[in-house]
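Pasting as-is:
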Amino acid sequence: MIEKFGADGFLENSWVLPPGVVEPLRAHVDVTPQGWIADAWPVTSDVAVIVQPWVDEPVDVGSGAWFVSSVQAAR
């Protein structure tokens, strides 16, 4: 999941990434053996290149407002 926060710290938008994106992200964030991203990570320029195709607005890595994490559905 990609999350974008506003200047007020509240979530502005989020995008769910397809499962296949986890593998390319492994080099940049901690991923569990089960394929979950551990914790939330600021989006760097390397991560932005990987996730940008699934985000419908430009990812501004300099803003500090963008994070990548896992989404887990409630059971």
